[in-house]
Amino acid sequence: MRVGLLGFGTVGSSFAEVLAAQPGSGVRITRIFNRGVGRKRSHEKARLVPAEAVWTEHVEEVLEAADVDVVVELLGGLDPAERWLQAALLAGRHVVTANKQLIAYRGAALFALAAEKGVQLLYGAAVAGGVPVIPGVAQGLSGDRLTRISGILNGTCNFILSSMESGAEYQGALGRAQAAGYAEADPSADVDGFDARAKLCILARLALHAEIDPEEIPAQTIATISAVDFSYAQELGCTLRQVSRAELVDGMVSAGVGPMLVPRSSPFAWSQGTRNMVVTSGLFGGDVVFSGHGAGGHPTAVAVLSDVRAIAENSVQVRLPAHRMKVVGDVLAPHYLRFVVADEPGIVAAIAAVLARHQVNIDSLLQHRGHPAARLPFVITTEPCLSSTVTRAIAEMAQMAFMVQPPLCLQMLVADDPETV
Ligand SMILES: NC(=O)c1ccc[n+]([C@@H]2O[C@H](COP(=O)([O-])OP(=O)(O)OC[C@H]3O[C@@H](n4cnc5c(N)ncnc54)[C@H](OP(=O)(O)O)[C@@H]3O)[C@@H](O)[C@H]2O)c1
User: pTM for this structure?
Assistant: First the structure.
């Protein structure tokens, strides 16, 4: 299997390294495309590339080359990656990619083109890096009827939130993630949930056979979480994680991405650092948990090489059709509401009155001592209610004069959710 590699960055160079460590695999890099080839060839991992491989700055010298069987795309981004992969498929080349944005937004058309040309398009590295959730769901669980898929799909958010468990504030934890190379200088794609919702769409297509638009999935940022939320969550027997969930409900997909309270006993709470976790729920097979390193050069390169090998072995992929479905963001769940107020008499009564007017029942009220009266944080948890209802109530409360900052509203995963078993 002769590989034409597009991109010699973190994953591309790791792919060369992982491949070099497995001589006799029957997989060989014959061509590499990247801009600034001179710079790339001086990379320490470039010496792991076979000496006879051709390096080029002209992508067409890879896409249609006679000595390339599979084009491995490790560039990232929608354009020009999409155009180049279309060209590779049209030229009858198999394609392997780790590009989640491309597969989430343009996957349907690319799969159709691959099928038309009788070639394979594999993307096992696009979700959860080295965790084989894509082949696991596509092959191993295709005999079940999956109704729900949920997971920790963004390692950067998991690193930040699991660091905050030990008392760090958000900015400090983000700084550490950036220093360690886990977070970009502009962390928005990770912390605001856009990366996770692209991955959730890919999983929904595969697991729920639902074609959904990433832009329709509500995404809530983790940037408004503070250390005090972890101490209140602990009192509730919980911690916080960025959770992505999609579930079939009445012919639609209920989906969302955001920070949620998860019970400390749940697999999600055990997930530390940059690890990823995916839980599937099937009508017949019950719950299945996938867990491991969701990012990083080596784990991601393993997934890429596994796809190349699957193509080399002519392994048949199960492809079940997916249908366009509407996304609903509303969820019936208990909610965690955190307020920071300038203390004065009557605050709890005023908040309780708004909740009562919206028919939201209070489950508990928590207030820790030792905070300054001018910035007093306290928490109300609700009985299960629709997120749209509680959002309307919160919008009303945000206008109250004693609010020092906008209230925070988070969904709580409850004990009968499969992720919490
Ligand atoms: N890193 C991870 O842990 C991870 C995990 C899962 C999936 N992925 C996915 O894997 C893909 C690659 O990620 P990465 O972390 O390896 O990214 P990266 O380190 O930025 O590598 C991308 C490489 O492609 C080159 N490149 C990008 N656009 C190009 C263009 N238009 N023309 C020529 N060369 C171009 C870059 O060259 P320059 O050096 O000149 O910029 C760089 O060498 C992405 O789709 C990413 O989402 C990554």
Answer: 0.94
Provide CB contacts within 8 A for 318, sequence distance 6+. 138, 139, 142
For residue 172, the 8-state DSSP code is H
CB of residue 10 inside a 6 A radius of ligand 1? yes
Please report the pLDDT score of residue 419 as a whole number. 55
- Which residues have CB under 8 Å from 341's CB, separation 6+? 347, 376, 378, 402, 403, 404
Token pair listed for 322: 């997916």
The pLDDT score that the predictor gives to residue 315 is 83
**Top mutation candidate among 10, 31, 33, 79 for ligand 1, by most atoms within 8 Å of CB:** 10
**Ligand 1 pocket residue status of 34, Cβ below 6 Å:** yes
Sign of CA dihedral 205, 211, 213, 216: negative
The reply to whether ligand 1 has any atom less than 6 angstroms from the CB of 56 is no
- For 97, the token pair is 């990619």
- CA of 13 from ligand 1 middle (Å) equals 10
99 lines ligand 1 (CB under 6 A): yes
Structure tokens at 112: 């159709």
What is the rounded CA–CA span in Å between residue 375 and residue 171?
Answer: 19
Residue 81 CA: nearest ligand 1 atom is 31
Q: Which residues are catalytic?
A: 199
35 lines ligand 1 (CB under 6 A): yes
- What local confidence, expressed as pLDDT, does residue 421 receive? 45
CA of 291 to the centre of ligand 1 (A): 24
Taking a C-beta distance cutoff of 8 angstroms, is the pair 86, 119 a contact? no
Closest CA to 387 of 413, 368, 405: 413
Q: Which atom of ligand 1 is nearest to the CA of 155?
A: 3
Give the per-residue pLDDT at 254.
Answer: 95
Q: For 132-162, write each residue's pLDDT tens digit.
A: 999 999 999 999 999 999 999 999 999 999 9
Token digits for 241?
Answer: 């994680």
Nearest Cα to Cα of residue 90 among 102, 79, 82: 82
DSSP codes of every residue in 354-370: HHHHTTPPEEEEE--SS
Domains and CATH numbers, the chain: 2-122 (3.40.50.720), 133-293 (3.30.360.10), 332-420 (3.30.70.260)
Average pLDDT of adjacent 10-residue blocks, the chain of 421 residues: 97 96 93 97 94 97 96 96 98 97 95 96 94 95 96 95 93 94 89 96 96 95 97 96 96 96 92 93 96 91 96 85 92 96 96 98 95 96 96 97 97 70 45
Q: Smallest Cα–Cα separation from 411: which of 398, 389, 395?
A: 389
